[in-house]
Amino acid sequence: MKILVFGGDGYCGWPTSLHLSEVGHEVVIADNFVRRSIDHELGAASLTPISDPKERVRAWRETSGAEIGLEYGDLLDWEFTSDVVRRHRPDAVVHFAEQRAAPYSMIDRSHAVYTQHNNVIGTLNLLFALSEHVPDCHLVKLGTMGEYGTPNIDIEEGYLEVEHNGRKDTLPFPKQPGSWYHLSKVHDSHNIMFACKIWGLRATDLNQGVVYGTITPQTERDPRLMNRFDYEEVFGTVLNRFCVQAAIGHPLTVYGDGGQTRGFLDIRDTVRCVELAVENPADAGEFRVFNQFTEEFSVRQLAGMIVDAAAKLGIEALVENLPNPRVELEDHYYNAKHTGLLDLGLDPHYLSDSLLDSLLNIAVEHRARADAEIVMPSVSWRSGRRQTEPEMAEPQA
Ligand code: NAD
Ligand code: USQ
Questions:
Q1: Per-domain residue ranges for the chain?
Q2: Nearest-CA residue for atom 4 of ligand 2
Q3: What DSSP designation does 336 have?
Q4: Rounded to an integer, what distance in angstroms lies between the CA atom of residue 106 and that of residue 381?
Q5: What kind of fold does domain 2-211+266-293 have according to CATH?
Q6: How much is the pTM?
Q7: What sign does the CA torsion over 233, 239, 240, 241 have?
Q8: Of 394 and 217, which is predicted with more confidence?
């Protein structure tokens, strides 16, 4: 299949592009590389050294013999998005190209607006481009488990059968997202569902859990193919952060009591799930939803697992319960269905002792590149402005 991967230079997009190319698909990456600029804004860098995009695709050509196309452009730029879809006429589009850090969206007004504008309008442009040029193309869109929040009932895959005043219907599962970023994903889901309904587009929303790990069989083939590994407070996801914190002797930063429970998956399962979705397209007019994670853990459980795994490597990791910078439940019911991708053939990599060892070993290998000053949380969900910003006076009548 010909597959256009928007956001193919990012943490999930790069290993997915390599995997799709490896299994024989024709892959073209489209990215505006804004994630690399955000590193500069945050004064941060991937723990692992990553090559620039042209070097990456050159290394892939040299090691695999396969070509990955590279298009530089912004989904917000209608001319670019329309043109790239028109020229490549993909069978499938995989859409990773969003601002994906919840803390980034909570820094202040401008970061909230940037996140929702980038994500919602970018996706809207893509929907119009698909409808105009390739209405039969299958859109595989990365959503998030965080769209559902933490309701006190089981979370279904996308839809809920409801009986109300004696009548029944199957409705989108209620959404209770926990950040301006997570809200942008909810808005996307509604827009995509509407486009499927009115134009007959076919789409799969992959409500992905928190991803951990960095290596896939393709990224470890050559140092120039290395994937990024974020560990700082804004883009670092919790398990990756705990690995680096243990490796540099920083206490593990458990927010609040650590009872927050989420769905998690290995980056090797991310790439496989996308492949399964692409190769088993939704029907025309269908808005299909899969919950893309393999296991559930609380933050406290993960910290305990890292403490034990680190001890086996001779590292003493301590846990620090910090005041929670986020507004979220720390003690809640969590049971989310995730059978759709298993039914399509996903064979998960579960979090085992050996896997924790390898995650910690990567962190230890690159720990000299880690900056301990960007590990502690500073973005607060409660203030809505930067900590240093002066109070704004109320407008006068
Ligand atoms: P990332 O920030 O590493 O990658 C996103 C890529 O998209 C970057 O290369 C960036 O430059 C590009 N991009 C962003 N806006 C763009 C635009 N307007 N035009 C063109 N390119 C643009 O993020 P990631 O971790 O790879 O996440 C990819 C997707 O998966 C996101 O949609 C995210 O919401 C979702 N997701 C990620 C995780 C996770 O744990 N990382 C979990 C669940 C869902
Ligand atoms: N947490 C800690 N300590 C830390 C970092 C995080 O206790 O040092 C806690 C958070 O409070 C939260 C949980 O760990 O309860 C997960 O936080 P995270 O930063 O690992 O993940 P999150 O902000 O939810 O976002 C990540 C990705 C996002 C994706 C989401 C999937 O950045 O793109 O959508 O995971 S989900 O969580 O299912 O919504």
A1: 2-211+266-293
A2: 238
A3: B
A4: 6
A5: Rossmann fold (3.40.50)
A6: 0.97
A7: positive
A8: 217
